[in-house]
Design brief:
The structure is a single chain. The chain is an alpha/beta fold. It is built from twelve helices and 17 strands. Strand 1, helix 1 and strand 2 form a beta-alpha-beta unit. It starts with a strand and ends with a helix.
């Protein structure tokens, strides 16, 4: 039966909730490290181990790395941009003006092209590059949007000049080894070399038993999927950034093809992101979300994953129950 991966904290943050998660079939708990610290992770991992003793079962712990991602920085207050607004994106935080953003990618100015598109906050804000200066780019907003702190920045079609495993990722992986995590989800996996680098790091530090989940989130990952599958223990179709880096209408076909290739190669596969997005705020899923889960099961996904729905949503346990119901119904048709 297709399993459910549940994202921890802050919506799920108590032993009582974890017991109910276990009772509803949850066996893999995801710790999303862009939003976690070692202190909060240890707290929640310890809580999971206490629950294991109470229920007489086992949780498997997954650390989701930050990977070579680009982000804006902290803002005292969100910034509202209207369509056609012109503002700057800086690579030096100290130079940022009140209406500008900072991007933590040093090669931003070199890599973007005049007329190119930059996507912010999962593509909810798109901007066009107008000029390149010594310490910033000048961009024009293509839609209205309010930008908050630490938002994702995507440069579609551009190879980021960043390592597959960042220095911060290595610190977090060492923590995961110490805390006996079971899985590392490698964000923005681009080539099999990224997987091999992580596997070598795990082995060198006593973590060779930890399994690697390669997250497919950009064009490079799609282009190199066959070799990545061969190098990995599991694959995740991470549709959030994938749908920002690639045209959103192509994502269902990519999902179908990746799941099919994983089935041929006998590699477990996870379908993730926005599966029950509406339940972050609403007590029941949309019919489209139900269909999405249903067809992910029919395609052959070993796992479906809840992200913000159980991470920050108002109805985390209800999400799990509804997802279970859909999986059970879909299994009748496999």
């Amino acid at each position: 039966m297709t399993g459910i991966i549940t994202t921890m904290w802050p919506a799920i943050n108590s032993e009582a909730q974890l017991i109910r998660c276990y009772e509803n079939g949850i066996r893999i708990l995801r710790f999303n490290f862009p939003h976690y610290t070692a202190e909060t992770t240890k707290r929640d991992a310890d809580a999971a181990h206490i629950v294991e003793q109470k229920v007489g079962g086992r949780f498997f712990l997954m650390l989701d790395t930050e990977g070579p991602e680009l982000r804006s920085w902290y803002l005292a207050t969100p910034i509202t941009y209207a369509i056609w607004d012109i503002f700057n994106i800086y690579v030096d935080e100290s130079k940022r003006d009140a209406r500008g953003l900072y991007c933590d990618y040093p090669s931003l100015i070199d890599d973007v092209k005049i007329g190119g598109i930059v996507k912010i906050d999962a593509g909810l804000l798109e901007v066009e590059v107008l000029e390149k200066k010594s310490d910033h780019i000048v961009v024009k907003s293509l839609n209205d949007f309010v930008v908050g702190s630490r938002r994702h920045i995507n440069l579609p079609g551009i190879h980021y000049n960043l390592p597959g495993i960042t220095a911060r990722d290595k610190e977090n992986v060492l923590f995961a080894i110490k805390e006996k995590f079971d899985y590392i989800a490698l964000s923005f996996t681009r080539t099999k070399a990224d997987v091999e680098e992580l596997r070598a790091f795990l082995k060198a530090n006593g973590g060779e038993k930890i399994k690697i989940i390669a997250k497919i989130e950009n064009q490079e990952g799609v282009d190199n999927i066959a070799a990545i599958i061969d190098a990995s223990d599991m694959i995740m179709v991470a549709r959030g950034d994938l749908g920002t880096e690639l045209p959103v209408e192509t994502i269902p076909a990519h999902q179908m093809n990746i799941v099919k290739m994983c089935k041929i190669k006998n590699t477990p596969v996870i379908v993730a992101t926005q599966m029950m997005e509406s339940m972050i705020a609403n007590p029941i899923p949309t019919r489209a979300e139900v269909s999405d889960i249903f067809y992910a099961v029919l395609e052959g996904a070993e796992y479906v994953m809840l992200s913000g729905e159980t991470g920050v949503g108002k109805f985390p346990l209800e999400c799990i129950k509804y997802m279970n119901k859909v999986i059970i119904e879909a299994e009748k048709h496999t």
